Every structure is written in C-alpha cells, then in structure tokens.
C-alpha cells in the first residue's frame, strides 16, 4: 500500500514538472523546435547558435557581436574604415543603424544621410547639409559689425519638417578690432554658437510660414547675451551643418537681425536695424569642395525706418 502511494505521488510530481517545463517554452508547430538563443520556434536547420559557447571555424573563424545584440561567426575580425557590421556578421556599407541630426551623431566612417540615419560616408556623399554665409557688407567698429545672423532654417514642404543649423563647422569674422575683442573675451557678438537651433532674436515670430508681421527683434536675451553672431563685415564668413538635408523645393531661411526694431538693446531700444548684404552657398561636404552658389541678398532699409524689410532672407532651393 505504501509503495502504491509513493508511486502515485511520484507520478503527480512528474506531471507538475511537465506543466512547469512547458510554461518555460512556447509550444511549436509541427516541424519546428524551440531555439533557446533567439527564444523563438524555428526549423531545426535554422536554429541559432552562440559562438561564444559553440566556437567558430573554417571560413568564419571570428566570433563577433552584431547590432541586434547576438554573437555570430564571421570571416572578418574587424570591419574596414567606412564599413559597419550587419546582423549576419558581414561588413557592409549600407546598413542604417542610428538616427542622427548631424554627422557627429554617427560613428567613425559614417555620416548623416538623406533620411537622417547614419550611413556610410560614401552613401551620404551626395546629400546637401552644409550652408556657408559670406558677409559682403561694410565693417564698422561697433560690438556687432557687419551681418548679424540669428539662425538658419530649412523647411521641406513635402515632408513638413523644419531643421536648423545644428553644428558650426567654421567661423571666420572680419574686422581686426572685432576679432581682437573676441579673443580678449570682450562683450561683443562673437559667439558662433548663437546661430544654432531655433531663432533667439526672432523668438516666437518665426514659423514654417515665415516671420510674423511684428517687426521687432530681441537684441540681448535675459542673460544680457547677444542673440546672434556677427560676421564682422566684408570677408567674414560662417559655415554650418543643418539638421535636415537641403533638397530641391525646400526653403532655406537666413534670419538676419535687420528690418526690425531692436528690443532689450539699452539706449538703442526701438531703433531700426537694417539688413546687410549676404551671399549664400550650399555643399555636400563641410570642406565645401563643391559649393553651389545660392542667392545674394542686398542691404535694405533706410535711416528713417519708413521702408524696412523683414530680416527673413528666403531661398527656394533649386538646381542641386
């Protein structure tokens, strides 16, 4: 009798084990098995392995980690410059792995491509992202000589996306006195980072539709810092990388502190600021080996302020 009770108890425990074990794995359809590496049902010949425990040999002697987090055998221990690892272990040039706004968001050998994803530098080679602004105005000895750039924006009416300058590639102001003041940390409009992101001088006034009819511009922010960067007059230049690609049909907007009445400018508050003369270029590389010339924006406005133009300089891009 005791032996019978013990036997029934053992069978009951075994049955419980079967239930518990089945809960750890999904039930697979006929012809498939449970793969403990991928935690999915696969046909036996597709069952994944982990080369860290199973090892590698033959034409694929290297155990490497791939983007999906698993480990697989590969024929190459390290990918050459400009190539990245695919999920099957190959070194490839076209896999898009990371979202990006500017090229420095990506790994070495990559760049930010047309869809704002990191791709090989070769694949991104034809994407226009760089804008150069040349100051053609006369310099003066003020704290903000020449053209005063608040922001650069790119609007794509097809996608509805707006991008801004995301990185300063190069800044070379003109006017020796102005450069000396910048080098000596004087309170002048010589900080190129002020050109980045959404407008500050025209904060609240700029949208995808352009500038509002309010012709006011903020000269200094709440920290008493200039809301723009000055280029110093003729010969001054600045180059930026945009957070959205520049394509035909998109609108490139340069917001220059002109055509407006200054606010928070001390004794100059409510005085008129005038647009300066600028020349715009775009390129596919930050070094600008292939600059495409855009429009030239002429100086506007007059001393009594009766004929002020807004500080929005727009170019509907074509010819790229």
Pick out its properties:
320 residues; mainly beta; 9-stranded antiparallel β-sheet; 3-stranded mixed β-sheet; 3 helices; 30% strand; disordered N terminus
Topology:
Elements (H helix, E strand, L loop, with lengths): L1 H23 L8 E3 L4 E3 L8 H4 L7 E4 L5 E4 L9 E2 L5 E2 L17 E3 L5 E3 L9 E6 L12 E9 L4 E12 L3 H8 L22 E2 L2 E2 L4 E3 L10 E2 L6 E6 L8 E6 L3 E4 L8 E2 L4 E6 L8 E6 L14 E5 L4
Parallel strand pairs: 14-18
Antiparallel strand pairs: 1-2, 3-4, 5-6, 7-8, 9-16, 9-20, 10-11, 10-15, 10-17, 11-16, 12-13, 17-22, 18-19, 20-21
Describe the protein's architecture and organization.
The protein is mostly beta strands and 320 residues long. It has a domain at 130-316. 11% of the residues lie in helices and 30% in strands. The chain has helices at residues 2-24, 51-54, 176-183; strands spanning 33-35, 40-42, 62-65, 71-74, 84-85, 91-92, 110-112, 118-120, 130-135, 148-156, 161-172, 206-207, 210-211, 216-218, 229-230, 237-242, 251-256, 260-263, 272-273, 278-283, 292-297, 312-316. The strands form 7 sheets. Strands 9, 10, 11, 15, 16, 17, 20, 21 and 22 form a 9-stranded antiparallel sheet that branches. A 3-stranded mixed sheet has the order 14-18-19, with no helix packed on it. Strands 1-2 form a two-stranded antiparallel ribbon. A hairpin with a 5-residue loop joins strand 7 (110-112) and strand 8. The protein is elongated. The chain starts with a helix and ends with a strand. Residues 1-24 and 302-308 have low confidence and may be disordered.
């Amino acid at each position: 009798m005791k032996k019978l009770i013990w036997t029934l108890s053992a069978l009951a425990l075994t049955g419980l084990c079967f239930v518990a074990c089945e809960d750890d794995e999904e039930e697979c359809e006929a012809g498939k098995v449970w793969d403990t590496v991928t935690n999915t049902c696969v046909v036996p010949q597709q069952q994944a392995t982990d080369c860290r425990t199973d090892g590698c040999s033959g034409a694929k002697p290297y155990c490497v980690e791939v983007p999906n987090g698993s480990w697989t055998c590969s024929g190459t221990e390290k990918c050459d410059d400009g190539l990245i690892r695919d999920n099957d272990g190959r070194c490839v040039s076209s896999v898009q792995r990371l979202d990006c706004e500017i090229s420095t968001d990506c790994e070495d050998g990559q760049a930010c491509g047309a869809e704002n994803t990191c791709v090989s530098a070769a694949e991104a080679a034809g994407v226009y992202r760089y804008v150069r602004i040349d100051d053609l105005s006369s310099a003066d000895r003020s704290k903000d000589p020449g053209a005063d750039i608040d922001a650069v924006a790119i609007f794509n009416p097809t996608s509805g996306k707006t991008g801004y300058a995301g990185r300063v590639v190069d800044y070379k102001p003109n006017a020796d006195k102005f450069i000396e003041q910048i080098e000596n940390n004087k309170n002048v409009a010589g900080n190129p980072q002020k050109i980045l992101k959404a407008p500050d001088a025209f904060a609240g006034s700029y949208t995808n539709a352009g500038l509002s009819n309010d012709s006011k511009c903020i000269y200094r922010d709440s920290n008493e810092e200039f809301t723009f960067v000055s280029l110093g007059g003729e010969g001054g230049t600045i180059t930026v990388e945009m957070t959205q690609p520049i394509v035909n049909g998109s609108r490139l907007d340069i917001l220059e502190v002109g055509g407006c009445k200054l606010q928070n400018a001390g004794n100059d508050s409510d005085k008129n600021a005038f647009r300066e003369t600028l020349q715009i270029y775009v390129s596919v590389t930050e070094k600008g080996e292939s600059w495409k010339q855009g429009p030239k924006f002429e100086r506007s406005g007059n001393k009594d302020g009766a004929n002020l133009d807004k500080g929005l300089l727009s170019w509907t891009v074509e010819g790229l």
